[in-house]
Automatic annotation (TrEMBL), chains A, B:
Positions in coiled-coil regions: none
Protein name as it appears in the record: Putative competence-damage inducible protein
Any Pfam family the entry gives: CinA_KH
Family: Belongs to the CinA family.
Chain ranges of the MoaB/Mog domain: 4-171
Listed HAMAP family: CinA_B (MF_00226_B)
Gene3D superfamilies hit by this protein: 3.30.70.2860, CinA-like, MoaB/Mog-like domain
Signal peptide positions (record): none
Gene expressing this chain: cinA
InterPro entries: CinA, CinA-like_C, CinA_C, CinA_KH, Competence-induced_CinA, MoaB/Mog-like_dom_sf, MoaB/Mog_dom
Organism of this sequence: Anaerostipes butyraticus
């Protein structure tokens, strides 16, 4: 069973708003095991909207349209969808009752165009709107296709979809879908793919697909079956195989868990505290750690030591080191990590120093050169990275790499 | 001239990521005076992608495709776009040189599938990627249509579009379009809109359109004319009017200038240094300041004082204050700002303390409550904010608000 999402609204095409409805609907439909092959955004233009609806009816089983159900002249979604399904509009008594009630309770003036919101196609299920005036509807097309119309504002669309549309879709679809994600934080997308090329080539059910994220690669394993239990059973051997291949390069198998959450959890489990000394990242490492509610269990303080003086003053980095090998060096990263742990009396110290660019390059130090030191109870590891990208990307990836180094250091302890 | 945006990626159809590229491209195309009538998202499926590309070639002058240029097997955008334009692929020497250089400098293993990234259609302009490995390209189709392929990651797509594609599009379009942006950092979108309702209602040439950004509102004034000079003349009175209405609520009128850049520049002009003491933001304020190359002129060090102990130890916040009014209070924010300035011997001190949520609420302190103190040469101002949104959004907006407070404090000095 395939669905197609059609978002109606000139404001999306002008870039005035980001289309979060499409992302929400896509994610929910995937969870319901309904494949979405196309998402289209079209403006408040009757000819182009009609063209898109006709095309959708030809190639998909379910159309989900959002937006254009309001009372104004350019809200035409319902009229066009009804016409495309060969249906006339009729008044829905309950919709009319609710509309009148709304206007009498708010004492807003009810105009002639408000009344058109109570008109619905002849053969449809009306979705009454608990959070606004425009009712949604599921139009039953004669070939058995379903055309679902939803109001545009997310505060109306989300509860209507979740409470009223999902139960309808669940009944339409045979079987269930289950998917699991495997998140890898220390390999590039193409290296990951090379490792699983054989699995991708022979995949059918379950499938496995890599997604590149900033500093990470996610692998999604998805199976289709008659029951949830069967689907989960199908996913299992593939996940086991991926675990065997990637080992502790996998930082989580949970959909909602981020690298910083894994880090905070690992530290909290060991009752460890962490302190960072950040130069080129300027606080981004600690800032990301604080994304996690409860970071206060593992973090008391960190140091943003941008100048050489600050590195000496708070972390005890040696002046000689700075004068000879310089601030961007293995030695400085080590002294920063150890100095941060000592000054904060923390179990784990992190030292980050690098050239984020674009300026500051020398003969042997190019932008993107980063040294990260990680010290756990006096045992220090240091790594050199030559990262690609602009200043922002270098700094963001640096934060990910530092988190991975801490994660692995804790694993290996 | 009409353009159509085609985003390629199963991860968008699965709702794994929100399609911010479409919003970015739409906004930029609108600014260039190019009408976007359709946006389509399609998965990594060759038949469906080809169908969408063919349809786009029939109905639009310019196709902009994002995503699917990577090295993996399901990255097929280039192959399909070339076929739809009737072109074969050939190796681009410069792309190959860059690819090899990248892999030798990063010491990552270069696999066979990486090499396919250097293959480009016969008749195209190659857009070399300064922030990743996949080059973009403008395929010149025989009927005079242009098919523009861009990498999916926004950190690669945005600079490539801005620096390389926009100049090409400007030449394609008859007449010229000039637009100017006015960035406001201390008002919400609806307040800004209310202030300019009359201007929006009677607009024709130039137009003015508000865009809500995180913690900011941008107003774009756009004029259409035969020559650049005329277009600039048309924009002028509207910009003057907006300046009159918003005054120093405008932090810049430059497209590429960010709030943190304005801040670093204002500090550098006065030869001031700044130091922050960050609690709930955990380093994000300073991290954002360090976005600006040359931040070292104004920043030596900052403090991430997450625990009460750290606030006392590094900033001299009084134990009595923490025990009576608590860490999230006006008094603590003031002492943090003053303490940071003193400890770092800086001209400007910033203190940020708040409840980012979701936990930690009390009877009179709800998540989203933030106090920001700003101290310039011993003169301290403090403000209370009750921000909306999740933990992340509260912290990001807090950083913006703190930057605005420093900016205004420097203006008023």
């Amino acid at each position: 069973m395939t669905a197609e999402i059609i978002c109606v609204g000139t404001e999306i095409l002008l870039g005035n708003i980001v289309n979060t409805n499409a992302a929400y609907l896509s994610e929910r439909l995937a969870a319901l095991g309904i494949s979405v092959f196309f998402e289209t955004t079209v403006g408040d233009n009757p000819e182009r909207l009609e063209q898109v609806v006709h095309q959708g009816l030809e190639r998909s089983d379910i159309l989900i349209l959002s937006g254009g159900l309001g009372p104004t002249k350019d809200d035409l979604t319902k009229e066009i969808a009804a016409r495309a399904c060969g249906q006339k509009l009729k008044e829905d008594k309950e919709a009319m009752r609710r509309l009148k009630e709304y206007f009498s309770s708010t004492r807003l003036p009810m105009t002639e165009n408000n009344l058109k919101q109570a008109m619905v196609p002849e053969n449809c299920t009306v979705l009454y709107n608990e959070n606004g005036t425009a009712p949604g509807m599921v139009i039953h097309e004669e070939r058995g296709k379903e055309v679902i119309l939803l109001p545009g504002p997310p505060s109306e669309l989300i509860p209507m979809f979740h409470h009223q549309v999902e139960p309808i879709l669940q009944k339409l679809r045979p079987g269930v879908l289950f998917s699991k994600v495997i998140k890898i934080d220390c390999m590039g997308e193409s290296s990951v793919e090379t490792e699983i090329l054989d699995l991708i080539e022979k995949q059918s059910n379950p499938t496995v697909a890599p997604y590149a994220k900033l500093g990470e690669v996610h692998l999604r394993v998805t199976a289709n079956a008659d029951t949830m239990e069967e689907a989960k059973e199908l996913v299992k051997p593939m996940v086991m195989e991926l675990r065997r291949r990637f080992g502790n390069k996998i930082y989580t198998e949970e959909e909602d868990i981020t690298l910083e959450e894994v880090l905070v959890e690992s530290l909290a489990e060991k009752k460890y505290t962490i302190a960072a000394a950040e130069s080129c990242t300027g606080g981004m490492f600690t800032g990301r750690l604080v994304n996690v509610p409860g970071a206060s269990d593992v973090l008391n303080e960190s140091f943003i030591t941008y100048s050489n003086e600050a590195k000496m003053k708070y972390l005890g980095v040696k002046e000689e080191t700075l004068n000879t090998v310089g601030a961007v060096s293995e030695e400085t990263a080590v002294q920063m990590a150890e100095g941060a742990a000592k000054a904060a009396d923390a179990d784990v110290g992190v030292g980050i120093t690098g050239l984020a660019g674009p300026g500051g390059a020398t003969e042997d130090k190019k932008p993107g050169l980063v040294y990260i030191g990680v010290c756990v109870h006096g045992k220090t590891k240091v790594k050199k990275y030559q990262l690609k990208g602009d200043r922002q990307k270098v700094r963001q990836v640096t934060v990910s790499r530092a988190m991975t180094m801490v994660r692995l250091a804790l694993c290996e302890e």
